[in-house]
Amino acid sequence: MFIFGERVDGVNRIRKELHEGKKDYIGGRLKRVFDTIRSGFFGDTQIVHGILDGLQNGFDHYITCFDFYSYIDAQNVVD
Fold first, then answer.
1. Torsion of CA 28, 30, 31, 34, to 10 degrees
2. pTM score of the predicted model
């Protein structure tokens, strides 16, 4: 089992920052993922546009975008 992501105190801090308007947290690798999805590379994008826009504009309650890089690091260990 590999554990990744923020602890409770980090989650609460990040949620507070998002609530206060923080929007510069996506990072280059995840932005490229979002841009590739938006480009239509994987097919119809109408369904996911709202989700991606929300995640990039502070509506990331589960801090998925913040944990992305920690997940990648854990996955590299698994590999």
1. 160
2. 0.76
Instruction: State mean pLDDT over 58-79.
Output: 92
Domain limits, the chain:
8-78
For 10-66, give the DSSP string: HHHHHHHHHHTT----S-HHHHHHHHHHHTTTTS--HHHHHHHHHHHTT--TT-HHH
- The pair of structure tokens assigned to 70 is 């920690």
Residue 11 identity: V
Rg (CA), the chain: 14
